[in-house]
Amino acid sequence: MEKKVDTRGTVMAMATYKAKPGNEAALMQLVEKHLPALRELGLATDKTNYVAQAKDGTIIEVFEWTSTSAISAAHQHPAISAIWEKMILIGEFPPISTLAETQRPFPGFAMIG
């Protein structure tokens, strides 16, 4: 029997990260720490997440926030802020609409991991 999960109030996130030249590996290490840190604080669900890469190298991380208030709480938590501050130093956060793949219906990205 499949377990039913109540997702009322949860929010799907699609985060995009593009490393500055030479920082690809360091950014990926931070992406790998990001979701576990959110989950440990109860800010993201344990539902399956996805990490993919666009042709231009942009990383797309798809996960689920536990609520809209969890998003605000993440911005106030020192552990999450520390990860984001490191990301800002070595990367950018381009809008997903700037990715070439999104200019056509049903965009596809290469899965990572």
From TrEMBL:
InterPro entries associated with the record: Dimeric_a/b-barrel
Origin: domain of life: Bacteria
Protein name stated in the entry: ABM domain-containing protein
Organism whose genome encodes this protein: Mucilaginibacter mali
